[in-house]
What we know:
By secondary structure, the protein is mainly alpha-helical. Helices cover 68% and strands 3% of the residues. The chain is built from 15 helices and 3 strands.
Amino acid sequence: MGLIRLLLASAVLLGHLNPGGPLSLLRPEAAVEAFFVISGFYMAMVLDGKYRHHPNSYCLFLGSRALRLYPTYLLVASATLLVQAVAYWRYQASVGAFASLVVGTEGLLLPARLLAGLTNLSIIGQDFLMLATIDAGLRAMLLGVPGAEGLTSGHALLLVPQAWSVAMELSFYAVAPWLMRRSLRDLAMLLACSFTGRYAALSLGAPFDPWVYRLFPFEVGFFIAGVLGYRLFTHPSAPRWWTPTDPFRPMLALLALGAAILFFEALPGGPEKPALLTIALIFGVPYLFTAFAKSTWDRGLGDLSYPLYLVHFLVAYVLTAFGKSGLLVNLAASLIVSAGIVLLVERPLDRWRQQWIRNWRGGKPAESAQ
């Protein structure tokens, strides 16, 4: 499963830095939504396992997820702030969120800048900030269509703009334990409501980005699809053909999903392709998690996906400042920085996190998890 996650993160990088280019893989929007399906499956699995019978499971679950996500994010956000500050004060270059938040180049009043700063610090609300626009005339943030005349998109205030999807993950974590207590019928109805609302909004002319793509009620269906896949996979009446009893089926699922990511744009079909990818993930992810759960190399590849997703814009800023360019250079440098973050930050903190979980659970061993 780690290889698929790394391919998805790479697809986001390539799509952001070279949209529509010859090396483009899966569209960034589809890659992010594929991450949501995988997250839904994985969170359902851990909630059904190590958090199932603990009296404080909700707090333990949220605390564990915060310890997993925040350190890397805060490291990347801090480094981005430092780089942008140096660029502004040393070279008078108004790049990124620093100029808007600290210097106030967008003309925002201090309370709006403080609110945006708090959002950058906490991650919470970054998805809603993507729906906002900056009106320098009113010196305020408003809900509107980013890119409209005289308005600047709210993502100009984000140090790590792609972390809006992490904010959406946090929203899912808040409701994930409740979703796990729902029946299969309830989950199917919630999924149908989310996707029906999504396509209704599109049919009424709502812009896909941001009013569909970045709005939690319309995106939660992808998380629910992952939860539903886990519940179906572990259901007592699940068909035997869905049980990974041999290595052939997981390998087939890996090849099929890998090919879908690598050649998504070249595959036949139109607007229905993301829906077909979601269905493929529902059926393919259980095989991959089961087959590669104990694979150290697969986990190592998967560990790179989160820092790679967060750090690639920062790496691009720095490389550009030193006159280095090229998509493959950006990808290679981002992978190297991501490996450093994993080895020096995430793995030491993960050992501490697992110990913290064991202590909270009264000394019972905690399964290693993302």
